[in-house]
Automatic annotation (TrEMBL), chains A, B:
<protein>
    <submittedName>
        <fullName>Hydrogenase isoenzymes formation protein HypE</fullName>
    </submittedName>
</protein>
<feature type="domain" description="PurM-like C-terminal">
    <location>
        <begin position="183"/>
        <end position="335"/>
    </location>
</feature>
<dbReference type="InterPro" id="IPR011854">
    <property type="entry name" value="HypE"/>
</dbReference>
<dbReference type="Pfam" id="PF00586">
    <property type="entry name" value="AIRS"/>
</dbReference>
<dbReference type="GO" id="GO:0051604">
    <property type="term" value="P:protein maturation"/>
</dbReference>
<dbReference type="InterPro" id="IPR036676">
    <property type="entry name" value="PurM-like_C_sf"/>
</dbReference>
<dbReference type="InterPro" id="IPR010918">
    <property type="entry name" value="PurM-like_C_dom"/>
</dbReference>
<dbReference type="InterPro" id="IPR016188">
    <property type="entry name" value="PurM-like_N"/>
</dbReference>
<dbReference type="Pfam" id="PF02769">
    <property type="entry name" value="AIRS_C"/>
</dbReference>
<feature type="domain" description="PurM-like N-terminal">
    <location>
        <begin position="60"/>
        <end position="170"/>
    </location>
</feature>
<comment type="similarity">
    <text>Belongs to the HypE family.</text>
</comment>
<dbReference type="InterPro" id="IPR036921">
    <property type="entry name" value="PurM-like_N_sf"/>
</dbReference>
Length: 358, 358
């Protein structure tokens, strides 16, 4: 499917919302080499787009205030292809992805770093569009991008644009006790319809010709996590955004960490008609498809209905559902009761059929 | 020089210290997709190599203790080609680079994040070798790698292996006042012979046939910065590791930040015979060539000799020299008094002749 020629620049050419003028300026190797062009690119485009005082200081490291509480630290690289997709782009993904990792770990996101690896020849208007998305997502979630880095690699050595974000947050009590503390009877919740991000990427990439194109769930989980912390407190055992590998991968990891069996019911899973349709057509299971704004939550026995009703009060988690429970280790680490049939082990695939979805 | 075919895998094939068995295992797309193979790669190779309790928890974000002081945060991506070079590899570079950014900003490095973007087909023995370098460099400098991420992109979409590290440190008083506070008479120091990293990469990449190959200065600046802080205190105005763009790029940035002229004397610059020889042969100026373990320091008038003598007590900065002074803005932002001739403006090139040196 992807030979070298096809790969070159597929990332930005496909589904690109920006028209590239014929006399467009492009990223050159010199933009990455620490000379005048590097400083100009950083100051006039990147710092300008993300403008805040810490970045303006242009130090080797950002100097930041003291934090009262304990810290959380995370990192994620983004290599999604194409760069733009219905519901988001690599920039929104890079901000929300890292914010969500902090949020589900019990932290209030404070600061992000931003590192760009650009391929020589990337149009600067594309870079500007991605930086705008980053600035908007950061502003919407109240985090500051305080340090950055840019590298340029020769044509063919990277596909368009890769982004890394790292995030620092402050842990806020009560911190979820974690998957290792799961107990029999705990209830499992998904915060929204599943599989939307992976299907959105697939539909664009494979040019399935759907109209309208299905949209990614790419977004911030900050408010839903906050509402759970404030309303449910210690009732919440653990949370995890269900990205690569989908909800199934989270369940496998939690089952491993706890030694319990995680069991879900197929008929309670929220799946949109378009995701269900495309999945059936292509023989995919929405449980294995990536999300970028949907999480799994485990709460103590009896707390599921309340948690779901708090989540439903927010538009981004209006489709939350209790989907299963935690049991003593039985026939498999993760099981599913299919709509027709008995409880059976859920597939734990080696990989997934969708590379480069984030 | 670099067409697509040449680029593919040049990163690890060249100067590789590991022999690749004919039945070697390779990174596959499935290693990056969040399924069983992803978990296996992370647990058995990455967490194993870097083993510490925080990483073992395998949370979305590392939970870290409270830090007493103010924080510093930095990030850097590494795309060096080839992956291995005399004096280091992409792994040592990724650890020391970020540690040095924290150190010169006045911070004690505490924690690093590590994000790998791997090309499908990268031999796992190469990954293991790089992880070993990362583990050794982290241990030597007393920092912990506490969070990570791995992505795999299809063959041709990235060249071998890219690494991002982000670093969190605690600012330690007295914090250097910064380039904006430079004053007339301040003395400029370089901490060692310049241009070694860029020349080492160039010699490997262009197969110049030198024997022995010149070695990079890739290393930690933690101890030299500490000795200056402890011995010189408020006498130190600012420090900066002179990476991409070399010592010249640091001087341009400091001149911009302060509005002063930074003036150096060619004959005081420490340059090794091999760097001088290759530079003359290829028409390069060592001032523009990258370093990865050498910094520029500005100290108050009269403090230069003491600072240099403290630096000379450490093997990594045994060649430190006072190389110039800060003056009121004169004929140019940065000037050089050549060995033969009068003071003249120093070139501020658009880029540099050496892409992908870090």
């Amino acid at each position: 499917m992807h030979d070298k020629e096809q790969n070159a620049f597929s990332s930005w050419q496909m589904n690109c919302p920006v028209s590239i003028p014929t006399n467009a300026d492009y990223v050159t190797l010199a933009h990455g080499e620490g000379g005048r062009l590097s400083r100009k690119l950083i100051q006039e485009r990147i710092v300008h787009a993300l403008s805040n005082e810490t970045l303006l200081a242009m130090n080797d490291a950002a100097q930041l205030p003291r934090v009262t509480g304990a810290l959380a630290l995370t990192t994620d690289s983004f290599v999604v292809s194409p760069l733009f997709f219905p519901g988001g782009d690599i920039g929104t993904l890079a901000v929300y992805g890292t914010i969500n990792d902090l949020a589900v770990s019990g932290a209030r996101p404070l600061w992000l770093t931003l590192s760009l690896i650009m391929e020589e020849g990337l149009p600067l208007v594309i870079l500007d569009r991605v930086l705008q998305s980053i600035a908007e997502a950061a502003q919407q979630t109240g985090v500051k991008i305080v340090a950055g880095d840019t590298k340029v690699v020769p044509r063919g050595a990277a596909d368009g644009l890769f982004i890394n974000t790292a995030g620092v947050g402050e842990l806020i009590a009560p911190i979820p006790s974690g998957a290792a503390t799961l107990q029999e009877g705990d209830e499992l919740i998904v915060s929204g319809t599943i599989g939307r991000h992976g299907i959105a990427i697939l539909a664009v990439r494979e040019e399935l010709g759907l109209e309208p194109l299905p949209s990614s769930d790419c977004g911030s989980l900050l408010r839903p996590v906050e509402i759970l912390r404030e309303s449910m407190g210690h009732q919440v055992r653990c949370l995890r955004d269900a990205t690569r590998g989908g909800v199934a991968a989270v369940m496998q990891e939690w089952a491993e960490a706890s030694g319990m069996t995680l069991s879900i019911e197929e008929q309670s899973l929220p799946v949109s008609p378009v995701v269900r349709g495309i999945s059936e057509l292509l023989g995919l299971d929405p449980l294995h498809i990536a999300n970028e704004g949907t999480m799994m939550i485990a709460v103590k026995q009896g707390a599921g209905a309340d948690a779901v009703s708090f989540l439903k009060s927010l538009p981004e988690t209006a489709d939350a559902q209790v989907v299963g429970t935690v049991k003593h280790r039985g026939i498999a680490a993760v099981t599913i009761k299919r709509t027709l049939g008995a409880e059976q082990p859920l597939d734990d695939p080696l990989g997934s059929p969708l590379p480069r979805i984030c």
